[in-house]
Amino acid sequence: MEQGKRVDALYFLNRGIARLFRIENDVDYTLGIISTNHFLSTPLYLQNGKDSSCSLEALTEIDVLMWDKPAALSLKQLIPRMYKMELAIMDRLLNWLQDNQIDAICMTAEERYAKMMSSQPEVIRQIPLKYIASLLGIHQDSLSRIRKILVQKEH
């Protein structure tokens, strides 16, 4: 998936870590970090034919399943339960968006980092800190301070 280009496939991440990002005014913003067993693109973009508002990038070696638009639409017609699965994917996406918005407004960067440490520890161990800092909306130096504070709290 690439920002400004039509989404022509549905992707499912079997293994690895990918980053959802957007370039705006020459600044790279990490919008999400997706790990194993999640969809990387949404049926909405695939179905409506609109250009993507963001891009995907592999941060580790990945293994993905891919369905092009005709295959995805054909599966939906051939397998009645695919419609329910599509609704479940959209529900999961909306929950993720809402949770991220609430966290961004109601939690400090330190609290969001601590939450990420508990929910996605493998991500923190495997990807460059600049992407985590970008996701948290802070500078990398601030993330280093947060990490130092959290280590001190553990002792």
Task: Summarize the structure in words.
The structure is a single chain. The chain has 7 helices and 6 strands; from the N terminus they run ββββαββαααααα. With 155 residues, the protein is of the alpha+beta class. The protein has 2 domains: 1-106, Jelly Rolls (Sandwich), CATH 2.60.120; 109-155. The longest helix has 26 residues, at 81-106. The model has no long low-confidence stretch (mean pLDDT 89).
Quick tags:
155 residues; alpha+beta; Jelly Rolls; 2 domains; three-stranded antiparallel beta sheet; 6 strands; 23% strand
Q: What can be said about this structure in brief?
A:
With 155 residues, the chain is of the alpha+beta class. It has helices spanning 43-48, 69-78, 81-106, 109-119, 121-126, 129-136, 140-154, and strands spanning 9-15, 17-24, 27-35, 38-39, 55-58, 63-68.
Topology (elements, then pairings):
Layout: E1 9-15, E2 17-24, E3 27-35, E4 38-39, H1 43-48, E5 55-58, E6 63-68, H2 69-78, H3 81-106, H4 109-119, H5 121-126, H6 129-136, H7 140-154
Antiparallel strand pairs: 1-4, 1-6, 2-3, 2-5
Overall pLDDT confidence? 89
Overall body shape: elongated
The low-pLDDT segments are: none
Strand tally is 6
* Oligomeric nature of the chains: single chain
What's the end-to-end separation, in Å? 43 Å
CATH fold descriptor of the largest domain: Jelly Rolls
CATH architecture identity of the largest domain: Sandwich
Into which percent range does the helicity of residues fall? 40-55%
